[in-house]
Design goal:
This protein is α/β, with parallel strands linked by helices. It starts with a strand and ends in a 21-residue tail after the last helix. Helix 8 (about 290-300) links the parallel strand 10 (about 270-280) and strand 11. The chain folds into two domains: about 5-110, no CATH class; about 130-375, 3-Layer(aba) Sandwich (Rossmann fold). It has a five-stranded mixed β-barrel, surrounded by four helices. A four-stranded antiparallel β-sheet has the order 1-4-2-3. The chain is globular. The protein has ten helices and twelve strands. The longest helix is centred in the last third of the chain and has 29 residues, at about 340-370.
Length: about 400
């Protein structure tokens, strides 16, 4: 059954929150009936794009996002209609596969949501498969790590965090707060392929921020093992997204998130460097040095890792603010390769502080930017209405 609310007809003093909630309820009820929910937004103030339409899947996973964004539209005086568009397509129907091709779906075109309903449905199913937790548990602020030790530090900081009940490839832990305002940590494993896989799926949840918390090789004389690196930009030598995002496209960390991370490091008196992070797909790049060293020197990189540029590039594609806070674990150019005994001692000493800086920065991001981090720099000229915070 169709649900229509014309917010322009309400008095300025009227409380719009219950009506926004009823629209979100209608979206969920339509999904439960076996249909893709269709949301149509009439924006009378828009000269060029007054009418926008979009389908959804698994709406409970993005309830917080719908409430916030529809609330903004309600305040502006939009007319919102919720109904059912068509029957849900089963995963085993070949039509489902055909709908997933993003090359036939212009991400820059003005529309209500960035993804097709089938894409949302499959990504949330795969997200549960990889992380071992329901997509509805994911919070608005997401940490990625490569190590169980960071998950241990996360659970120590948030003793009530909820995690998987079984062994999975990318276990996730969630510090849950009302409105999904808490933090989620995912141990994504090592390498750009894993980084692309997880960001492909997390993107449909529209998180306010994604922060990579990993280790790196320090490249400068005056860096020491245990120093932090705050990425300002990235040298994309991972090659995994080159076909969909040319390397000529500049990708940088979110300025506001970087400012919060910088504030935390300064307050603690920590040693750090800011600069370009060189992300490679070759863990043993030291065995074939010529090409890597030429690119490192040309880019003035301060560190090497295997995930940060991939996370940032996919965040750029999908309009998600990202940043990377890395910790120097070795210095291969200065006679300090990563060796087992030294690495274990470094892990014990660095994990708590590293995780705490990242978590506190995200908590401040939540408090200072409840409507989402400003991200106009990653929007296209004709941006989807609900494409980013």
């Amino acid at each position: 059954m169709e649900r229509v609310v014309d917010f322009a007809a309400l008095s300025p003093e009227a409380d719009r929150t219950p009506l926004v909630g009823s629209l979100c309820d209608a979206v969920e009820e339509t999904w439960d009936e076996g249909l893709y929910p269709l949301v149509v937004v009439d924006r009378p103030w828009s000269r060029h794009n007054p009418l926008l339409r979009g389908e959804f899947a698994r709406p409970r996973a993005v309830r917080w996002y719908l409430e916030r964004e529809l609330g903004k539209l309600a305040s502006a005086g939009a007319k919102v209609t919720v109904g059912g568009s068509r029957e849900r397509v089963p995963f085993d129907d070949p039509a489902h596969f055909e709908s997933l091709d993003e090359e036939a779906w212009d991400l820059r075109q003005k529309k209500l949501f960035l993804f097709r309903a089938e894409r949302i449905d499959l990504s949330l199913n795969r997200l549960e498969h990889y992380t071992g937790t329901p997509a509805e548990r994911f919070q608005r602020h997401v940490l990625f790590t490569n190590y169980e030790m960071h998950a241990e530090a996360f659970r120590a900081r948030y003793p009530g965090a909820v995690g998987p009940a079984r062994s999975v490839q990318m276990p996730a832990w969630h510090h849950e707060l009302p409105g999904n305002a808490g933090l989620t940590l995912v141990n994504i494993g090592v390498g750009p392929s894993n980084a692309k896989t997880i960001t492909d799926h997390v993107a449909v949840l529209r998180p306010d921020a994604v922060l990579m918390v990993g280790h790196c090789a320090g490249l400068r004389n005056h860096q020491e093992v245990g120093d932090l690196v705050l990425a300002t930009g990235y040298m994309r030598d991972d090659r995994i997204l080159d076909d969909v995002l040319p390397t000529s496209v500049p990708v940088a960390s979110n300025h506001f998130l970087n400012a919060l991370l910088l504030e935390e490091m300064e307050a603690r008196g920590l040693s750090y460097r800011m600069g370009t992070v060189f992300t490679t797909s070759n863990r043993n790049w030291e065995f074939n040095q010529a090409g890597a060293l030429a690119a490192i020197r040309a880019s003035r990189s301060v560190a090497v890792d295997m995930e940060s540029a991939t996370v940032a590039a996919n965040g750029f594609r999908y309009r998600i603010p990202t940043a990377a806070l890395l910790c120097v674990s070795d210095k291969p150019l200065h006679g300090q390769p990563k060796l087992s005994a030294e690495a274990q001692a470094f892990y014990r000493e660095s994990r708590a502080t590293h995780l705490e800086v990242a978590a506190e920065a995200l908590e401040k991001a939540r408090d200072r930017f409840p409507g989402g981090l400003p991200a106009s720099d990653i929007r296209s000229a004709d941006e989807p209405l609900l494409g980013s915070a």
